[in-house]
Amino acid sequence: MAPPAQSQRSQSPSQPSGKGEVSDLKVQLRQLAGSRAPGTDDSKRELFKKVISYMTVGIDVSSLFSEMVMCSATSDIVLKKMCYLYVGNYAKGNPDLALLTINFLQKDCRDEDPMIRGLALRSLCSLRVENLVEYLVGPLGSGLQDHNSYVRMVAAIGVLKLYHISSSSCIDADFPSALKALMLNDPDAQVVANCLSALQEIWSLEASTSEEASREREALLSKPVIYYFLNRIKDFSEWAQCLVLDLVGKYVPSDSSEIFDIMNLLEDRLQHANGAVVLATIKVFLHLTLSMTDVHQQVYERIKAPLLTLVSSGSQELSYAVLSHLHLLVMRAPILFSSDYKHFYCQYNEPSYVKKLKLEMLTAVANESNTYEIVTELCEYVANIDVSIARESIHAVGKIALQQYDVNAIVDRLLQFLEMEKDYVTAETLVLVKDLLRKYPQWSHDCIAVVGNISSKNVQEPKAKAALIWMLGEYSLDMSDAPYILESLVENWEDEHSAEVRLHLLTAVLKCFLRRPPETQKALGAALAAGLADSHQDVHDRALFYYRLLQYNVSVAERVVNPPKQAVSVFADTQSSEIKDRIFDEFNSLSVLYQKPSYMFTDKEHRGPFEFSEELGSLSVGESAENVISAQRVDANDNDLLLSTSEKEENRAPSNNGSAYSAPVYDGSISLPASQSSLAIDVLLGLGLPPAPAPALVPLPPPIKLNPKSALDPTTFQRKWGQLSLSLTQECSINPQGAAALMTPPALIRHMQGHSIHCIASGGQTPNFKFFFFAQKAEESAGFFLVECIINTSSSKAQIKIKADDQSTSQAFSALFQSALSKFGML
Amino acid sequence: MISQFFVLSQRGDNIVFRDYRGEVPKGSAEIFFRKVKFWKEDGEEEAPPVFNVDAVNYFHVKVAGLLFVATTRVNVSPSLVLELLQRIARVIKDYLGVLNEDSLRKNFVLVYELLDEVIDFGYVQTTSTEVLKSYVFNEPIVVEAARLPTLGPAAMFMQGTKKMPGTAVTKSVVANEPGGRKREEIFVDIIEKISVTFSSSGYILTSEIDGTIQMKSYLTGNPEIRLALNEDLSIGRDGRSIYGYSSSAGAGTVILDDCNFHESVHLDSFDVDRTLTLVAPDGEFPVMNYRMTQEFKPPFRINALIEEAGSLRAEVILKIRADFSSSITANTVLVQMPVPTYTTRVSFELEPGAVGNTTDFREANKRIEWGLKKVVGGSEHTLRAKLTLSQESHGNIMREAGPVSMTFAIPMYNASRLQVRYLQIEKKTKTHNPYRWVRYVTQANSYVARI
C-alpha cells in the first residue's frame, strides 16, 4: 500500500511549475476513469494523492476537473473524500464544471451509509457557487431531519454555508426556524452546538435589516434558552462548552440569586484542563458580578490559582494567551495581587513578549511591603543580555519610584545604573531621572551630582540626550560646568539630527543664560543664530520667539522660560480608562492580547454581534476633558471599593473557602421545573420574545410618538449636541434591579431600543455609566431629541440632559424617556 | 471561528493548507511566514503567537519544528484557537505515531481527512482521536521511529540498563502492528518541569514545580482505569501566602497549590482517597496538570565564580553537584553562562578523567556552554574557563557575566514526591493482563543561579 518513495519525494515544492506532470496526470486519469479492472481504486488513489499534493503547494490543477469528476464514480470512501476536497477547492473558480458534480453529490446525499450522506452534503454546501443554490435546498432540508446525528451536524453548518452563498434562499426556505427547533430539541449535543453557531451568525447578520432576526437574536439570551444550555453543559464537547459559555456571558440575570445559581453550576469548569473553557467561565463570572463588589472580589481570589496553573502548564503559546488575561486583571486590581508578585518574576528563557507583560505586572503590584524585593529582582534584569528587557526593567524601576514607594532606595539604584557605563542603560536611566526630578525636586541634589559626571558624548539616543539637556538647563545653578557643556553642544548643532534635542537645547541655553548670564551669553547667541537658520519649522519658530522675547523684555522671558514650577503629581496614563473598560468587556478575546478594543483591529462586518460602535471612540474625543476627570473619579471609587471590601473580607467568618459564593448555594445543578421549561420553550417556538411594549402603553400617555427606525450618524449627533442648547436637565431614580442589570450596558441599550430610543455611544465603569441616546418624532422627519444620561448604579440615580430640535416637546419626551428607563430591569 | 488552517515547514513551505471560509485572501501563508521570520529587524525578538496584519489575525504554535497556523478576521478567543492548534497537532501525532515534516508529507491526505472532521466552516467539531476514528479511513503510513534522532520525547525516559519501551510512545494509535494484533498497553508518565532561582549566595529565591500526569492508552474496549495518588496529597494552600515557604505541614505530605483535570476524569472519590477514575480515550492526553510552590530539594547545586586574573584576563569556575541518589542518573545536562561581551577567546579545562563532557564558546551570543552526557547522583563536576578580554573590566566583571542556567532531564526522579500508588485497569477478560508503564521524569524549566 505504501507508495514508492520517489513519488513522495516529487511533492517537494522545489519542483518546476508541474505543467508537464499535470497533463500526464490528465492522461492517466482518463485511462482509469472507465476501467473496472481490480486494483483500479489503488491506482486512482495514487493519482488523486498527486493531484491533491500539487493543489497544496499551489500548482493549478483545475484543468483536471472533468477527469476527476469522471473518476469519482466509486465506492471507495477514501477516493470520494479526496475528490470532494478537490471539487470544494476549485468549484468556485469553475462554476460551469461544478455543475458536473451536482449529480453524483446529490446521489450520494441519498446513500444508505450515513457517513457518505454527511460527506456529500458537506461537499455540496462547500461549492460556494451561487447558481447551484437551487440544488442545495432539498438535500439540506432532508439532512436536517436525517435520523443520523452526523448528517444533522453537517446539515446545521450546511445551512450557514448556504446563507453565505445566498442569504435569501436560506431565509426563504425557512431554515433558521428549522435550526431553532433542532437546537432546542436535538438529543445530540454537537448538533445543538452547530445550530447555535449557525443561528448566531445568521441572526447577527440579518439583525441590521430584519426586526424579526434581531428579536430572535435577543431570544437566544432569554432565560429559558440560557437555562436549557446550562443544564446540558456537560453533554457538550469542550469546544461547544466555550460557545455556550460565551452566550451565557451575555445573559443578564434578573436577580442575584440567579447569579449565584449560575456561578455554582459553572464552578467546576474552572478546573478544566482546557484553558479556553476556563477563560470563558471566568468571563461569565466577572461579568455577572460586576455590580456586586464583594463577590466580584471573591471571584478574583477564586480565579487566581486556576489562571496561574494554566500559565505554567501547557505550551508557551497558550501560556502567553492566559498570561495576557492575568495581566489585564492585575492592571485592573493590583492590590489583589500584591502578595503574588513572585509569580511575575521573569524566567531567563521566556520570550520577550512574556517578559514585557511580567515587568508591567511587577510594576503594578509594587506596594510598601514588596517594593524592596521587586526592585532588587528588577535590578538583576538590568544586566540581562536582552537589551530591550534591560531597558524595560530600568523603566519599571523608575515607574515604581514614581508610585512613591521607597523612593530613597530606588533613586540610589537608578544612580548605580548610571555607573554601569552601558550606553543603553545610561540612556534609559537619564530619561527616568528627569521624570523623577519633575516629581520629586527634593532629590535634585543627589541626582545632579551623578548626572553631572556623565559625558554628553556617551549619550546618543535623542530621548536621553533631551533629558540630559533639560537637566542641564533646569539645574544650571547646581552644575558648575553646565554653561560649557551646553556651549559645546551648541557648537555641534549641525550634527544634531533630532529636532527634539535641538528644541530642548534652545530652551536649556536660555534657562541657563537667565541664571548665569555672563558665562552663557556666547552660547545663547550661537544657539539663537543656529536656531534661526534651522530648516526645521518648530526649531526656527522657537528660536525666533525667544529672540523677540528677549528683545522685548528680559524679565518677561524669565517668566516664560523659568516660571515657578509645581512638582508633577501624576503622569498621564497612556490609555484612557474608557478604552481599558472596553477591553475588559471583551475579555477572552484578541482585544486583551493586542491591548486594543476590537474596533481598532477588525473590519466592520466581522465584529461580534453586541460590540459597541467605533464612533464611540471618536465621539468621546470631542469632550475628552470632561471624560478624563470623571474617569479618574471613577477609578478612585473603584479602588476605594476594593479596599474597603478587602477589609471587610478579613472580618468575615472563615467558613468561606472561596469555592462557594456567599449566597444560597444550590445543590447539584439548576433544575428548572419541567413544566416551566417546556412552557418557556413553547413560547420561544412560537413568537420569540413578547413584542416590545409600544409607547402607547406607557402610564403617562405622551403626546408624541417616536419613530422606531430613526437613524443618526455620530458626526451629526456630535454637531447637533454642540449646536443645540440644553432644554432640560433632570434627575430621576431607576429601578435597583435595572441598576444591577446595567453591568452589561448593552442590555440597557437593547431595552431602550425597544422604546424607539437609540443609543449612539456609551461607556463607563461601575458605578458610573454614561450613555448618549437619540430619538426622533414619528410624524415629521426633522425633530430629533438628544439625551445624555449618566447612571450611577450604586445610588440607582440617573441624570438626564435633553437637547431637542423642537424645544416645546422636550418635556413630553422627557416623561417618555423616564418611563422607559424606569421599566429597565423589570422582567 | 477560524478561516484557514495550515502547516508550514521550517522553510516556509505549505505542507497542508485548508481554507474553510474563503474570507482571507490567498497568500496568507506567505504574509504570515515573512512576518514571523522578520518580526524585528535585529532578529532578536521572537514573533508573538498571535498578531494582526491588515485586519487578519494570525495564530501559530510551534510543534516538532513545524508551524501550525490558523487565520481569522473575527475577534475570537485566542486561547481557544491556540489550544485548538495544539490539539490538532496532538491528534495528528496520535494517528501518525511520529509527528515531523517527513511523516506529515507522507500522510497529508490522511491529515486533510482529519481536518475535514475536526473543523467545519471554521467551527470546531471534535478533537477527540476516539471520535475521529469512526470518520477517518486512510491508513497512516508509519515513519520508522528508528530513523529519528534520539532527541524525541521517548528518549528522555531511557534510564541506564533498565530499558523502558521508549519507542512505544511513537506508535500510532490506529495503525496495526506488523504482527497483526495490537499490544495491549498503557503508559502513565509523570512529567515535572522545575524552576529554581538561586541567589548569588546559594539561597533559593523562588522555586516551582509544574507537573503533568500524561496518559497514552493502547487498550481495546475502553476499560475503566483507576489511578491512585499519594493518600496524604492536599490541594490549595491558604490563599494569602502562596509563597510562604512555611514547611509546617509534615515532611511527607505533598501540597499542591492547584491542579486541573481532563474532562474524562471523574473526581467522585478524589476527595476521599485521592483516586482518579477515568475511561481513557484513545491517544495521548493530560489526565491532570498541577502546580506546586512547596519547598523541595533541588536536584542540582550550582557554584559559579568569575574573577579577573591579570589585565585582559579572567577566570570562570563552574561547579555542579548532583544532590540525588546514586542509583539515578541525569541525562543531557547543559550548563550555560553568558560572559562579558568583550570576551574574545575562551580556553577550557576539565577535570582529569572527565567523560562525555563537551565545552563550547558561542561567539555570537558570548556564552560558554558545558554539556555533560550523564551525571550520576552524588557526583560533583567542575569546569574551569580562561577568558581573554579585549578591554579592561574596571572591576565590574561580576555584573557583566551570568546568570548560570542549566537544563537537564532526570528519569525516574520526581521532585514533588507525587506518586501513582497504583494503576488499576478494569478487566474485561480473565486471560489477558495489559502492560502498564508508570514513568517519572523531572526536567529543568528555568534553573538559574545568579552570581
Automatic annotation (TrEMBL), chain A:
It comes from the Eukaryota. It is found in: Endomembrane system. GO terms for molecular function: clathrin binding. Gene3D superfamilies: Leucine-rich Repeat Variant, TATA-Binding Protein. Residues 1-17 have a biased composition (Low complexity). Belongs to the adaptor complexes large subunit family. This is Beta-adaptin-like protein.
From TrEMBL, chain B:
One of its GO terms (biological process) is Golgi to lysosome transport. One of its GO terms (cellular component) is clathrin adaptor complex. Pfam families: Adap_comp_sub, Clat_adaptor_s. SUPFAM superfamilies: Second domain of Mu2 adaptin subunit (ap50) of ap2 adaptor (SSF49447), SNARE-like (SSF64356). Gene3D superfamilies: 3.30.450.60, Mu homology domain, subdomain B (2.60.40.1170). Residues 183-450 form the MHD domain. Keywords: Membrane, Protein transport, Transport. It is found in: Endomembrane system. InterPro entries: Adaptor_comp_med_subunit (IPR050431), AP2_Mu_C_sf (IPR036168), AP_mu_sigma_su (IPR022775), Clathrin_mu (IPR001392), Longin-like_dom_sf (IPR011012), MHD (IPR028565). Belongs to the adaptor complexes medium subunit family. PANTHER family: AP COMPLEX SUBUNIT MU (PTHR10529). This is AP-4 complex subunit mu-like. It comes from Nelumbo nucifera (Sacred lotus).
